[in-house]
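Q: Second attempt. The first request was missing the SMILES, so the protein and pyridoxal-5'-phosphate are both included now.
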Amino acid sequence: MSKNNKKLESLVRPEIRAMSAYHVPEATGLVKLDAMENPFAWPIEMKEEWLQLLSDAEPNRYPDPSAKELVASLRHCFGVPSELGVVLGNGSDELIQLILMAMHQGASIMAPTPSFVMYRHIATSLSLPFVSVPLNGDFSLDVPTMISEIERHDPAVIFLAYPNNPTANLFHDEDIRAILNAANGLVVIDEAYQPFARKSFLNRVSEHENLIVLRTVSKLGLAGLRLGFLVGHNNLTDDLEKIRLPYNINIFTQLTATFAFKHMDVLDGQAAILCNQRERLLKKLSSLSVVRVFPSEANFILFSLLSDSAERVFEELKEAGVLIKKMGHVPGLPDECLRVTVGTRSENDLFFEKIGSILK
Ligand SMILES: Cc1ncc(COP(=O)(O)O)c(C=O)c1O
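A: Got both inputs this time. The predicted holo structure:
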């Protein structure tokens, strides 16, 4: 290694050098059931109206830095209480980063495990110690352990994904309340899968100064836009606004999201179809005696194989043209777990047909 290379490497913090980049598998030509996307296109009239709108956009100009029109329509569409603040992110990933960037150096961050991998990834990238508390066997929160870990580490931020990824369940209301009451720091309830669970803490933010609700439009059908938002008390959102990069929401996202929110009936209708498909797929998968299926309140299903290798089944499904997600060895998950996103009826049928014959 040259002297220069060595010097460049030594500039980067060792914890970052030890990290792996977030891996997104190649999906060309495959039925994509790996990333919790909405599989449906827009009705043709809606698409034409949207393209017309985009043709008036001015890519030579910077976007509105505070995305006023988008924020107003989002507040209306999602029923954000007027006394609360909203911060927009380039995906909710960016908001997780923004929250953590605002914390004191050395502040610890807590989340149950397994949960969304970006909580740990971003905390590590910012050199913030990460405390994970295993979920109970039924994937509920282990409240006594969480409370004793809160007392021990006094975390600045606790993340709770509601429903949780990758387990797909909603935590019990009273457990979340207990965490909220025990925490001195922020509690971020990440409602990425709210369109499929239809339960929310948004109306409780006003009651709890330390509560932030995080949402994304990705799972609703707008993953390509990269738009997330958080709702919290104004003193907090005002501080987060100071470190949000001024033009993080580009003009195409601002226009498209504002347009899409006027057609929420279409997006809600698609989510309702996916909820029906989820129930259908849950039933079908449960009929396979070699599979253990976990309940789901999201647009994906976690299941484990009782007598087969998840790696082998994943690879054979891919070979058969269907991409799902292999969970690897995630602490707190049973062995041999896989996660499938709920797709269209024909995608789900294809997945079920292929996995049925692989498991025979
Ligand atoms: C729980 C949870 N939160 C946040 C995200 C990130 O969503 P976004 O596309 O808005 O960055 C995901 C994505 O899978 C997720 O599972």
